[in-house]
């Protein structure tokens, strides 16, 4: 008898039929003798609807009050899921994040889990209850409800699996597993049988929406195998684990992120410490910076360009404009009609020429590259947003990723 953690996303609990389908899956594990923890997200578009309700009242509400509001979405889901399991004749209890002992820091709207007190969870599991836990939320040292950011229910599930030393963690979603690209953009994308934590972490960070990147970080840290599978069928999913395969795939996937903006600080004096000055200002505001490009301009000045998420654009511009005289720059410009397209693959490390293939695919498709960023297992380019889907298809075709079968080989 082991412990199984199952997570169901918003589409998987969107209506009565789907809630009962998820409930039966949980019961199926319970009947095998396992202790079962079910983590659920808010139903369907509930979170978006709550955000709209907030805007009707206050265009710029505090993050604390937004957390108070948004956490109610998951509270509805856990109660309905528990009622379904109850209706099917099985013992069950629903718990909010704080009742489940999930303690976070105080970064409202994007909190991190710092500790999980499993005493209540263990007590309920020992009573042979199926425990339904609200994803995406916790409580800070001030006893305030906090939320973990979009996709945070994945993180809740993995954190609970780690704290409870669960035997497996299943992430149920509206897709069959992890694909070589978004099947909505590339209809002939292939499903991977398995993928490494590092590759999945890059894909999640770079815009693939199957898993939340922090959940993959946690899974890697505690070596918890994740299974990503559809809640709508019984197909085998994709296993995310520490892959030690000798024949690593050259490229495992193509990801696209359109929630991005490019900011350029123009005419900065070409002396040491200027980049530190700019990025430390942003770091103090918890603004995450991605691709960075520095170019030498004329008259001993340089331009520094970088990307941030669109949600951080206004705050970035405000901070930099306010400190323009400190930075000593001539101007700050931005573009929010850009997209980042990336390839990820553990096999890229020992294969020179991958970047050239990617750039050739974009050249053949008539797509201009604005910025480039590389690491051992990824290459990202910044392009015009209108070319994003075309770029993903061109790169996917170039690397013949549609020829991968479900074994991921």
From TrEMBL:
| Highest taxon listed in the record's lineage | Bacteria
Domain ACT, which positions? 263-337, 343-409
The answer to whether UniProt assigns keyword Nucleotide-binding to this entry is yes
Q: Which GO molecular function entries does the Swiss-Prot or TrEMBL record give?
A: aspartate kinase activity; ATP binding
InterPro entries referenced in this protein's UniProt entry, alphabetically = AceGlu_kinase-like_sf, ACT-like_dom_sf, ACT_Aspartokinase, ACT_dom, AKii-LysC-BS, Asp/Glu/Uridylate_kinase, Asp_kin_monofn, Asp_kinase
Catalysis performed (reactions): L-aspartate + ATP = 4-phospho-L-aspartate + ADP
Return the GO cellular component terms, semicolon-separated: cytosol
**EC numbers on record:** 2.7.2.4
Q: Which residues bind ATP?
A: 7-10, 173-174, 179, 184, 209-210
**Which biological process terms from the Gene Ontology are attached to this UniProt entry?**
diaminopimelate biosynthetic process; homoserine biosynthetic process; lysine biosynthetic process via diaminopimelate; threonine biosynthetic process
User: Pfam families, per this entry?
Assistant: AA_kinase, ACT_9
SUPFAM superfamilies xrefs: ACT-like (SSF55021), Carbamate kinase-like (SSF53633)
Keyword annotations: Amino-acid biosynthesis, ATP-binding, Diaminopimelate biosynthesis, Kinase, Lysine biosynthesis, Nucleotide-binding, Transferase
Q: What class of enzyme is it?
A: transferase
Where on this chain does substrate bind? Answer: 47, 74
The pathway where this protein functions is: Amino-acid biosynthesis; L-methionine biosynthesis via de novo pathway; L-homoserine from L-aspartate: step 1/3; Amino-acid biosynthesis; L-threonine biosynthesis; L-threonine from L-aspartate: step 1/5; Amino-acid biosynthesis; L-lysine biosynthesis via DAP pathway; (S)-tetrahydrodipicolinate from L-aspartate: step 1/4
Give the family from UniProt. Belongs to the aspartokinase family.
Function (record text): Catalyzes the phosphorylation of the beta-carboxyl group of aspartic acid with ATP to yield 4-phospho-L-aspartate, which is involved in the branched biosynthetic pathway leading to the biosynthesis of amino acids threonine, isoleucine and methionine.
Name recorded for this polypeptide? Aspartokinase
